[in-house]
């Protein structure tokens, strides 16, 4: 449905998709202390199907608001999103 959403000026829908995506893309855990072996029993469950759908929707809607991540006031949003995306990609590589 996001492919055919038409033109819109309101960024509220895009922000809602972004917020939903952040719920399914966790932040990387804090640095592991030297004494630990690095295995954490509280590893987040990565839900690939949901993230895939939300990423596609964010991409389709983001084409209509190109400054959603690139505007000066959104630099922190982009930095946080990249960090989460890199962590998710590492989890994907381990999964494969």
Please tell me about this protein's structure.
The chain has 96 residues and is mostly helical. It is 55% helix and 0% strand. It contains four helices and no strands. It has helices at 12-24, 48-62, 67-70, 75-95. The radius of gyration is 16 Å and the shape is globular. It starts with 11 loop residues before the first helix and ends with a helix. Mean pLDDT is 81; it is low at 32-37.
List keywords for this structure.
96 residues, mainly alpha, 4 helices, globular
Mean pLDDT: 81
Largest sheet: none
Which residues sit in consecutive blocks of at least 5 with pLDDT less than 50? Answer: 32-37
Roughly how much helix do the residues carry, as a percent range?
55-70%
End-to-end separation: 30 Å
Work out the oligomeric state of the chains in this entry.
single chain
Globular, elongated, flat, extended or rod-shaped: what is the shape?
A: globular
Order of helices and strands: HHHH
In percent terms, what proportion of residues is strand?
A: under 5%
Total DSSP helices: 4
* Helical/strand content category: mainly alpha
Please give the radius of gyration in angstroms: 16 Å
What's the total number of strands?
0
């Amino acid at each position: 449905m996001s492919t055919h959403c038409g033109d819109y000026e309101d960024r509220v829908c895009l922000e809602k998709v972004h917020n939903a995506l952040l719920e399914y893309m966790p932040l990387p855990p804090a640095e592991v202390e030297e004494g630990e072996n690095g295995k954490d029993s509280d590893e987040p469950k990565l839900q690939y199907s949901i993230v895939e759908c939300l990423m596609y929707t964010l991409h389709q809607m983001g084409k209509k608001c190109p400054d959603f991540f690139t505007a000066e006031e959104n630099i922190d949003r982009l930095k946080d999103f990249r960090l989460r995306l890199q962590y998710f990609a590492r989890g994907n590589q381990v999964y494969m």
